[in-house]
Write a structure and sequence with these properties.
alpha/beta, six-stranded mixed beta sheet, four-stranded antiparallel beta sheet
Length: 248
């Protein structure tokens, strides 16, 4: 489970400080997929980076399974599997070698790495590329490799930043089924996306961020009811304000 409380982050610019995240609070529960939505520049990626310890908030806290990230970031990272916005893989290594390298970084023994690699390759449908050098991989193959290496240590909490960005239809469908599988295992999945069809198909709860603040949260049905809209997309546009919605 992830518990985010009153996160705040500003950045210095030539024209003065810019607030990227302003008092953001929400909960992502075990056995659920929580969607993190917002227009471009809303603060989604900055929020995720604070969750997985790449950035430190100026105020607020993040707890991963009751562990305070600021107090024990190493222990918190062990409980997190992260697909960041930048998902470069080591091009000179095969997919298997990429996964094994991350397994060793997490302190796994070779037998465990081999077992987890086999399990993840089967679940992600990447067995046919496992022993190919990743240079020349398609976007979908790179994304699958990045997800597998993020999950090799069997984390209970999974953070995914735009996981289907740039993927073809069949790869996207396969990845959605994989995320449902993670949910069925009782894991906590936090998914950042701007694709409304994806969010409607996958998410149990949704957190909407605009201008660095949480402007709405709840189940898809609750959000549609709150904004008196049959469409989740229309409810989203109302929640963030129609002007921003045009650039989401």
């Amino acid at each position: 489970m992830l518990l985010v409380t009153n996160l705040h982050k500003t950045f210095k610019t030539r024209t003065g400080p810019v607030t990227a995240v302003d008092a953001v609070s929400f909960e992502a529960r075990d056995g659920q997929i929580t969607g993190l939505l917002g227009p471009n520049g809303a603060g989604k990626t900055t929020t995720l980076r604070m969750l997985y310890t790449l950035m430190s908030p100026e105020n607020g806290s993040v707890k991963v399974d009751e562990l305070d990230v600021a107090v024990d970031p190493t222990a918190a990272r062990r409980r997190l599997g992260v697909l960041p916005d930048a998902r470069g893989v080591y091009k000179r290594l095969t997919a298997r070698e990429n996964i094994a390298y991350f397994g060793r970084l997490h302190g796994l023994d070779e037998a465990t790495i081999a077992r987890r690699t086999t399990e993840l390759a089967k679940a992600l449908g990447m067995e046919d590329v496992l022993d190919r050098q990743t240079e020349g991989f398609s976007q979908g193959q790179r994304t699958k490799t990045a997800i597998a290496r993020a999950l090799v240590h069997d984390p209970r909490n999974v953070l995914l930043d735009e996981p289907t960005n740039g993927l073809d239809v069949m790869t996207t469908r396969g990845l959605r089924e994989f995320l449902k599988h993670l949910r069925s295992e009782g894991r906590c999945v936090l998914l950042s996306s701007h694709i409304m069809q994806e969010v409607a198909a996958l998410c149990d709860r949704i957190v909407i961020i605009a201008r660095g603040r949480v402007v709405a949260q709840g189940t898809p049905d609750e959000l549609r009811a709150q904004y008196a809209e049959a469409s989740l997309e229309d409810a989203f546009v109302k929640a963030i304000g129609s002007d921003e919605g045009m650039t989401a």
